[in-house]
Specification:
- The chain is mainly α.
- Helices cover about 80% and strands about 0% of the residues.
- It has four helices and no strands.
- Helix 2 runs antiparallel to helix 3 and helix 3 packs antiparallel against helix 4.
- The longest helix has about 35 residues.
- The radius of gyration is 16 Å and the shape is elongated.
- It binds fe (ii) ion (2 copies).
- The site of one fe (ii) ion has 5 residues, from helix 2 and helix 4.
Length: about 140
């Protein structure tokens, strides 16, 4: 039973972005499941690595899209991305140094950030990208 399920409220209407956001949520769910089931530390480490690299991949894609549409809030948005990358890297470090991470707390924090970010920040660039699409 997944802890995190995608709902239509998270849709931005940009297929490539929605697809990435969905995949991100699936990865977080995998992390939560691995932690909750008490998987071996190496297994959890691998899942955290996946979250780290997918987070970076998604952010790069989104930033490229914002830049190519001259999104005016680009700098602020990128800063939020950078802060989150730092947070995830910190979780990875804590895990690598042998700290027990509270599964629910870690997963919830990430999920909350993701969902909040999509709904309050990502949503703001949609008209710029859609506008460009309509002008084509
Ligand atoms: Fe974003
Ligand atoms: Fe995003």
């Amino acid at each position: 039973m997944p802890m995190f399920t995608w709902t239509d409220e998270y849709e931005l209407g940009i297929p490539a972005i929605d697809k990435q956001h969905r995949k991100w949520l699936v990865l977080l769910d995998g992390l939560y499941t691995a932690m909750r089931e008490g998987r071996a530390s190496a297994v959890i480490g691998k899942v955290i690595d996946e979250v780290v690299s997918y987070t970076k991949e998604h952010f790069s894609f989104e930033e490229m899209l914002m830049r190519s549409h001259s999104y005016p809030e680009y700098t602020e948005h990128k800063q939020l991305h950078d802060e989150f990358v730092k947070q995830v890297a910190e979780i990875r470090e804590r895990h690598e140094s042998g700290q027990m991470l509270p599964a629910v707390q870690v997963a919830n924090t990430m999920k909350q950030w993701l969902v909040d970010h999509i709904q309050t920040k990502d949503r703001l660039y949609v008209p710029y990208i859609e506008g460009a699409r309509h002008r084509r």
